[in-house]
Amino acid sequence: MRGFHPSLVAFDSLPLAERLFVRARLFSAPLEAMAARARGTRLLDVGCGHGVLAALLAIGFPERSVVGIDPDARKIDWARRSVGRFPNVRLEATTVDALAQLEAASFDSVFVADVLYLLPPAQWPTFLSACRALLAPRGRLVLKEAEDDGSWRAKKTLWQEQLMVRVLGRTHESGAVGFEPRETLIRALEETGFSIRESAPMTRGYTTPHVIFVAECA
User: Model-level pTM greater than 0.70?
Assistant: First the structure.
C-alpha cells in the first residue's frame, strides 16, 4: 500500500508527530517513482528533509552511497536519528551551492523533490547550476515539482503549502511559495544546460499536480 513502504521502519524511533509527517510525505508524493529513476551508485538528495527519499534510495541497496542535504538543521537532526543510522547514508545541514564547491562532479544522480516552489524563480538558475555542477559525466537530475496547471489540485496544494510554511512552520521558505506552469520548469532546466529525457505527470491517485522530470547535462 502506498505510504507504507518497508523503508519506513527506519523512522520508528522518531516521535509520533514526526513519524506521521514522514508517512504523510510518502503517501502524498511520488517519491517511490523518483527513486525508481536512480542511475548509478553515488546519489544525492537535495532538500532531503526528514530523509524519506534518502531512505528509499539507500535501504536495501548497500552498494549505493546516499548523501542527503538540507539547510534546515531541525530536519537533518531527525534524519540523522533515523535513516542516518544506516552505514551508506550521510546527512549534512548545508546548501546545494556550498556542496557544489566541495564535491563537484561527484554524483551519478541528483534528486530534488519540492524545492523550487520555495525559491523565487530568479534564484532557479543558480540553484539548478549547482545541481548540474554536482553531477558526474552522464549523470542525471531527477526533479519533482507541483505544476500550476490551473486545476483545483494546484489551488488546493498552494493553500496547503502556505499553511505548512507560514502557519505551522513545517517547511522553511526562501523568499517564495508558489507554483509555475510546466513550460516554465522545462525552460529553466534547458536554460541551465539540461537536456530533458522525461517529463511525466503524476496526478493519478494524488490530490497534487505532481510532475517528474529526468534530465541530463546537454
Answer: yes
